[in-house]
Amino acid sequence: MSTRTCLIVDDSRIIRKVARRIVEAFGMEVDEAADGAEALALCTGAMPQTILLDWNMPVMDGLTFLRRLRALPGGMSPKVLFCTIETRAERIAEALSAGADDYVMKPFDGVILQSKLSGVGAV
Which of the four, 15, 56, 98, 100, has the lowest number of CB atoms within 10 Å? Predict the structure, then answer.
C-alpha cells in the first residue's frame, strides 16, 4: 500500500508540531506549511491526500487557500479538514461550501483527529 500523505497548514509552529505527532502515529507522511501561499506551492508540486488547514493565517488564509486548491488540477482529491477555533455555524457552513470535507475544533487531540480523519476516509 502506498504511503498516505498529509499537509499541515498552520501559522503556529506548536500546532503543526502537535498535529504532526498525531498524524505520523497514523502512519502518514507529513509536510508542513506556515500559510496558504506556502501550502499552495507545495500542492502544485505534489498533491497530498489529506490537508489539515488552519483558518486564520497571514499571507493567505485557509478559505482563500481552499478555494484556490479546489481549482487546481487534482485539487478536488485531497480530504481537507479545517482546524479552527471558529464556532459560528455560518462560518463553518462557509468552509464546507468552499470545499472542506469536515472541520475539527482547536484544541484537538489524537482521538478527536482520528475520528474526524476516519469520518472523511483519510485513515
Answer: 56
